[in-house]
Description:
Largest sheet: 6 strands, antiparallel, barrel
Radius of gyration: 36 Å
Number of strands: 21
Strand content: 35-45%
Distance between the termini: 60 Å
Order of helices and strands: HEEEEEEHHEEEEEHEEEHEEEEEEE
Helix content: 25-40%
Number of domains: 4
Strand order of the largest sheet: 2-11-14-13-12-15
Structural class: alpha+beta
Amino acid sequence: MRIPLRQHPIIALIAVLICGLLVWGFWPQPVPVEAIAAIRAPLTVTIEEEGRTRVIDRYIISAPIDGVACRVQLNVGDPVEQGQVLLSITPLESQVLDPRSRAQAEAKVAAAKSALQAAKQQALAAAAAEQLAATELKRQRPLMDKALIARDVYDKAVTEVKTATAARRSAEFTVKVAKHELRSAQMVLDYTAGTTREPAERLPIRSPITGKILKVPHECEGPVRTSDPLLEVGDPSLLEIEVDVLSPDAVKVKLGMKVLFDRWGGAQPLEGIVRIVEPVGFTKVSALGVEEQRVLIISDFTSPAEQWQRLGDGYRVEARFILWHEENVLQVPASSLFRYHNGWAVFVIEGRYAQRREVKVGQRNGLVAQILEGVREGEMVINHPSDEVEDGRSVKEREGA
């Protein structure tokens, strides 16, 4: 015999409540997501690598003869002047040269004289190139003021002047070194070819340039052999930065490209410009044991010298090569993008639902991506969409996101 439910309202109420709880428990719940608005802001695409400073022109002063070097009284960082006596060497008692040895010593002197003449001619050529670059820049400056030439043409002319100046200065240093080498070769001939039994005169070792002591590999008094390094000198006020980058990244770096140097010890980043992208790569093993092909990129400082004079040879910097930059770019987090139909897509929140949108992506820097089509400014996109997020799925913004 059936009992009507209306005679037992409590049982009916419990049944309805159980059904409601079952429906509510199995009803799809909104997926909690992190929502970020698409905004317009500056976007910069860079290549970041660790580099170090180095003195542009450095010289290793080596022993020109076998002998006994006196104790070095100079320390690293001491200033020296061109022609200053740094130390002296008491040559070993010379032996009479046989005809072949004498001919070899004379040939070295002749070769040193020829090298000096070649260095002088290169210095003249570098000076002429510098004058030509300066004349070209002077001719283009009024054209630039009247907007008759492109900005990159003028910037290229400025870079050529700086490059020509550096080449001329390096050529002058080469002349000085060639003179020093000629003097060393002549001394070898003079001090080894004699037959006198008088006490040997101490041979003074002079500085080829004005600068500072960078390294003292031989400090104590003792015997030295020809070509043993004695001192290393250079001018720390003339610095350049060497950065080794992966070869695929080196292809993207161009001469004259702007570089920013961070984490060098100062409050503000320093600015520089790419001067050389070396045409030869080398193999380097990474910290993970992977062999990588890398390329050296040499840059010059463009910031005022007083800002970076505290840097010295071999100081560490973080280099950022500016590949692309724009001030007003529509962008979203790169983590909001996912692959869809051989392209890119994002989930946009419309109302309380996630809508999949195919987008056209421009530049990317690893953190954010430029959006060319598909999303409007101010629309909320889902960052790090999980597998639960689908097109048309109900979502809610995660608390604290």
